[in-house]
Fold this protein.
Amino acid sequence: MNKNINIIFLAIDALRAKKLSCYGYKRNISSNIDNLAKKGILFEDAYSCINHTDPSFTTIFSGKYPLSHGIINHGPRVTDIEVKTFNERKIKLLPEILKENGYKTLAIDWLWRWHKRGYDYYSGAKPQLSLHGFLKQQFRKFPFLRKLIRQSMVDKLQEKVFKGVSKAYEDARYVTDHAIKVIKENSGEKIFLFLHYWDTHAPYLPPKEYIDNYGRTKKRIEELFRYFTSTRFKEEFELFEKSVLEYKSAIISSYDGEISFIDYEIGRLIDFLQTQGIMNNTMIILTSDHGESLIEHGIYLDHIGLYDETIHVPLILTHPELPEDKHIQGFVQHFDIVPTILEILGIESNISFDGKSALSLINGSQLHSAIYAEEAQYQRKRTIRTKNWKYIHLLSHKDEICRRCGRIHGAREELYDLIKDPKEVNNIIEKEPEIAVTLKKRLDNWIEKYNYQEPTIETTADTYKEDMDKVEDRLKGLGYI
Ligand SMILES: [Zn+2]
Ligand SMILES: [Zn+2]
């Protein structure tokens, strides 16, 4: 295959696969992504290896399982030990490999820290103005202010001056505009361009034209996300839950509205590539780092848990020399993406990936008989999912209570019959103990090879403190801290 091909990597954060028409969603909110799928290969059974952003992108771009690259938590919960492990293992990321192979590497992303490695150009999406962010800066400069200004005052001011909740990052329009600019500036180069769309991540506040009953819906969503970003989230959880259940349709329509918005912006990008003749010489990969649970399983507007809403992700690949309009069944996981890209490009590498090239899946063979995934950050769980079954278990009983909401999600061990119960609501662990034992054994065998020690000390990694400051304000806005 042509080795001089551009690569555009579209990541849509927190996009659940089943929310796209090409993955079976009944509402038509993704016509441009559906059309993109018609131009290439759609992997029906693609899964994330972990449920949070930092470790998931590290897997996506390293071809390694989280226990193998060492990053399992997200944002400020990433520990020094995790970063140390990641560095000591000398994990190489896709942009670094591609740069060595003549690519101009470009990214529009805001994760920074180790994620920016290997890029010739790395542009964080600009932060939105927020009172919390502004005050944080002031507190850093003038620590005595912290004593004078109480959290309740900050909340009141945020409400009055900034009219409540706002997006903590630039939107899809900005990402596409910026992408077009960057592509123009690099014409004549062989490019790898990573675009990180964020709008499907909480808070879901799409522009007016992407949502019905805009005023009413927006008001409800803002009310929900005020809880979400509150420092008293755990204490107010019952009130939050009550509102979530009451505003169910507003949640669905605003999340769907964000998908329509991103879809429109991806359509605009693809139109540009087509009119410029770039599409004929470009491979496009589209995926999400993890899905999203809107109201399912008692997990609201978040990606906690290892249920399919959270780990089943879209994966679409287009390439001028690969088949068009092809739906492929069979398990594929994020750690397979790098080996697949390298095989397509004919790049030899001595890295031992945990994933495998999915080209064999395209050609009809099975890639994996099961998928494996980790949950970190707010609770520590692990799963094995086969075609028929899903087994999930809690790693340590001290982690039983979710650190985010103070509730217990699921049970210490869960087993679901995915044929009879695809929504994973009836835990049949008591009824089918033998199946659970067999699956647990497979899961333990899979994990054993990583020789992984659970980190015990939790401190933010000093090495990345400086970059962390840049993302901290936005993490606050997203409800992580
Ligand atoms: Zn994410
Ligand atoms: Zn929780």
DSSP finds 17 helices and twelve strands in the chain. The two ends are 46 Å apart (CA to CA). The chain has one domain: 6-128+166-477. Residues 10 and 51 are 18 Å apart (CA to CA).
